[in-house]
Specification:
Shape: globular
Radius of gyration: 21 Å
Strand content: 35-45%
Structural class: mainly beta
Number of helices: 5
Helix content: under 10%
Bound molecules: copper (II) ion
Largest sheet: 8 strands, mixed
Number of strands: 36
CATH superfamily of the domain at 15-38 and 187-357: Cupredoxins -  blue copper proteins
CATH topology of the domain at 15-38 and 187-357: Immunoglobulin-like
Length: 507
């Protein structure tokens, strides 16, 4: 029995939608007209290099070079890509909470770009958002203190309005923050051995192996979806496990696809962390939804020694409260299938090796984290997501009726205060909403407390059609009236089309 994360009301209550999917039929990965003839034989999962940087005068320094490259995703085709210190994606950066880091980012991709530190709390000028552009041939060197709990964060291009195509071609990488506490509670923690990152990215390829972007009519409204899955840049990956407890830190680094992850034999697993750190307690489950920008930290038990595959399906797009065109049962299912919404993927073939390390006993409590209490919030702001008349082929994506304008500051927040932000989604599509600067807490989703897996620190939250989410944000420090932070939909095509706004934090 698959118990789904009680996420946004109605989003998963898609019995009819699922039935209609069966009628239409899921399109198996690799069978589309786009990628015919491309051979992606199973290969070992690539593990991103982990950089520790060099320490100079007490500052940990990393050097990143954004560059063009050629990737070999398939045996019989080359693919032109972008990467950081490599041909596709970038190295993982290891940082310790409390230390100061400087990252020298050089741009050599042939066009202006940025690099944003997704999930990190830092001064707006170091954020790498759309105002911190790096012209081709230039270097940008932000320096900041690591003020985080231990967690997996990530970095990616945030170049308005070309975030979608730049990330799609490969401009992203991982950040691991470690702290005293998380390293001492017994979680698997040997990188690449029993602590494995998985960056999930669906991609569409032409028959010659080239990346196809926005080549189908629905891509602009729905967001770019592919029919092949890359995991850390590997097609059809397998992983030979040398431990009975395997920790998977999973990033949905896709432009717009939402995954529902589960194991092929239905076995349960334990979620130990979310976007910004450990959960208060481990949460056992059989299936979990991951929207673009979100991360999860899970531990799966391989003591039975059996091969098992981590798989993904597309969650049923049932609408909350029965609203929304896409949510309408059979019609939603058919439209979803026609628009490339539905596809099943094998994410990772896990092959337990002989002589494995024995399973760890997970702690009963992971992190002291009080429930979010909005009593001290000084104000409530409301954000209404909009898609204009995109369905009819025109219009703009917006928040509170206004598309993103680089020269307009939408909200001004006073430093040292707490606020409640209410995000409403009256549109027919789900939107993953991301806020820069702070890790927030979810107060409620459609009036109900979040599921235990969403009770921790978050920077991205999925909002279903018709959904309403209340967040508690604490703006403890860092103020700058001249440099804004962003809040936006993390469907990158929606973001590029204007579903974004700006806020400053002032003293
Ligand atoms: Cu969106």
């Amino acid at each position: 029995m698959i118990s789904r994360r009680a996420l946004v009301g109605g989003f998963l209550a898609g019995g009819v939608g699922m039935a209609s999917a069966a009628v239409v039929g899921n399109q198996p990965a690799g069978r589309s007209i786009f990628s015919q003839g491309l051979n992606g034989e199973p290969g070992p999962l690539a593990i991103p290099d982990m950089l520790s940087g060099t320490v100079e005068d007490g500052v940990r320094v990393f050097d990143l070079n954004m560059q063009k490259g050629i990737s070999h995703f398939f045996d019989n085709a080359d693919t032109r890509t972008l990467g950081i210190n490599g041909s596709y994606l970038g190295p993982a950066l290891k940082m310790r909470a409390g230390e100061t880091v400087r990252i020298n980012v050089s741009n050599n991709i042939g066009e202006t770009s940025t690099l944003h530190w997704h999930g990190l709390h830092l001064p707006a000028r170091a954020d790498g958002g759309p105002h911190q552009t790096i012209a081709n041939g230039n270097t940008w060197s932000p320096q900041f203190e690591v003020r985080q709990n231990a967690a997996m964060f990530w970095y990616h291009s945030h170049m308005v309005p070309r975030t979608g195509p730049q990330v799609y071609q490969g401009l992203a990488g991982l950040i691991f923050v470690e702290d005293e506490h998380s390293g001492n509670i017994g979680l698997p923690g040997e990188y690449g051995v029993d602590d494995i990152p998985l960056v999930l990215q669906d991609r569409r390829f032409g028959r010659d192996g080239s990346l196809e972007y926005m080549s189908a009519m629905q891509d602009r409204m729905m967001g770019m979806k592919g029919d092949r899955l890359l995991v850390n840049g590997t097609i059809n990956p397998y992983f030979v496990a040398r431990s009975d407890s395997l920790r998977l830190r999973i990033l949905n680094g896709s432009n717009s696809r939402i995954y529902q992850l589960a194991f092929s034999d239905g076995r349960s697993f334990v979620q130990t962390g979310s976007d910004g750190g450990l959960l208060p307690v481990p949460v056992r489950m059989n299936s979990i939804i991951l929207a673009p920008g979100e991360r999860i930290d899970i531990v799966v038990d391989l003591s039975d020694g059996r091969h098992v595959t981590l798989q993904s399906t597309t969650p049923s797009l049932g609408a909350a409260g029965g609203g929304g065109m896409m949510g309408g049962g059979m019609m939603g299912g058919i439209m979803g299938a026609l628009m490339g919404e539905r596809a099943d993927f094998d994410v990772l073939d896990i092959r337990p090796d002989a002589g494995r390390r024995r399973a760890v006993v997970l702690p009963e409590r992971l992190l002291n984290l009080a429930a979010p209490d909005p009593a001290n919030a000084v104000r409530t702001r409301r954000f209404v997501l909009g898609m204009g008349m995109m369905m009819m082929g025109g219009g703009e994506m917006s928040i509170n009726g206004r598309p993103m304008d680089m020269s307009r500051i939408d909200e001004v927040v006073r430093v040292g205060t707490e606020e409640v932000w209410v995000i409403e989604n009256p549109t027919m599509l789900p939107h993953p909403f991301h806020i820069h600067d702070v890790q927030f807490r979810i107060i409620d989703i459609n009036g109900r407390p979040p599921a235990p897996g969403e009770a921790g620190l978050k920077d991205t939250v999925l909002i279903a059609p018709g959904g309403r989410v209340r967040l508690l944000l604490s703006f403890k420090d860092y103020s700058d009236p001249d440099s804004p932070y962003m809040y936006h939909c993390h469907n990158l095509e929606h973001e590029d089309a204007g579903m974004m706004g700006q806020f400053t934090v002032v003293s």
